[in-house]
C-alpha cells in the first residue's frame, strides 16, 4: 500500500550529482568506447567495490569513475540514462549538479560537458515531460582561485545554469573559503546552494547561510546540534535536501531507524528526499522514499509533504509552483 503510494507520488529531486548516476554498465560501455582503462573486469566487480567508510572513501572512487566521460555524447548518454530513471520514478522536475572541475582538470572542455548535459535536459522536457534546472558545483577541496576560473568559464553558458553549489570533501573546507567567488556568482545573477552539515559541523550550515547567501542547504542533517540554527531554518522555511541512502552508505547515520529526517519533518523543517549519487548508494529517489518509510512509520500526508516541500524549495517560478501544488 505504502509502496504503491510512493511509486505513484509525483516527485521533485533537488540533490543529484549527475556524475553519481553513472551506473557500472554505462561506465564499462564508455570505457570501451573511449579506450579508457578502469581497474575492474566487469560491472559486477565495480558494484562490489562500493563499500564506503566515509565521504572521502566514496569521493576517491567517484572521481575515478568519471574518467570514462570524454565526449559530448558521453555526457548526453549519462544524463539521458538518469532522466529515463526519473520517468520510471515519476519525477516531474529535477535540479541536478555537475562538477565541471572533475572534467576540465582532465583536459575536457567546459562546453563539451555542459552541452551534452543540456541537450539531454532539453530533450527530456520535450519527450519525457520532465523539467529541470542545472547547478554548477565547485569542488571545495580545490582553492577559491580555481572556482573563480570555473565561474568565468560558466559565464558564456549563463542561460543553462541556474545556481552554483559547493561539494566534495567537507571537513576542513568551510564555506568561508569560497565567500568571494559566491559573492561574484550572486552578482552575475546565479542563485547559490552548498553542501553543509553532512559530515561537517552545524557551524558550516550557518556560514553557508550568512556568507554564501544560499537558498537551500544540501544535506544539513547536523543542524540538530544547534537549536538556534534549527529555529532559524524553521522560521525562514530554509530547505534541506536530505539524501537518506547516501547518509547510511557514508555512515552519517548507522541505521535508517536512527536517521533524523522524519523527526525534522515533524518539527516543520522543510526537508526533502533525494538520491545524491544513486549509482553508488544503491537507489534512486523512489528507493530513498521507501527506505525511510520502511524504517520509520509515517502516514501518507507526511510522505506527500516531502514532495510539497521539494516543490516549494525548487527553483521553478512562482506560478509554476502554484500549478503543481
Ligand atoms: N557530498 C559531498 N560531495 C559530493 C557528494 C556528497 O554527498 N556527492 C558527490 N559529491
Ligand atoms: Zn551531494
From TrEMBL:
Residues annotated as binding substrate: 277
Enzyme class: hydrolase
Binding site for Zn(2+): 15, 17, 195, 276
Gene Ontology BP annotations: adenine catabolic process; hypoxanthine salvage; nucleotide metabolic process
GO molecular function: adenine deaminase activity; zinc ion binding
Cofactor: how bound: Binds 1 zinc ion per subunit.
Family matches, as SUPFAM superfamilies: Metallo-dependent hydrolases
Cofactor: Zn(2+)
Active site residues according to the UniProt entry: 198 (proton donor)
EC number: 3.5.4.2
Domain of life per record: Bacteria
Residues at the site labelled Important for catalytic activity: 219
GO cellular component: cytosol
Assigned keywords, A-Z: Hydrolase, Metal-binding, Nucleotide metabolism, Zinc
Residue ranges of every copy of the Adenosine deaminase domain listed in the record: 10-325
Reaction catalyzed: adenine + H2O + H(+) = hypoxanthine + NH4(+)
Similarity section: Belongs to the metallo-dependent hydrolases superfamily. Adenosine and AMP deaminases family. Adenine deaminase type 2 subfamily.
Task of the protein: Catalyzes the hydrolytic deamination of adenine to hypoxanthine. Plays an important role in the purine salvage pathway and in nitrogen catabolism.
PANTHER family: ADENINE DEAMINASE
HAMAP family: Adenine_deaminase
Protein name per Swiss-Prot or TrEMBL: Adenine deaminase
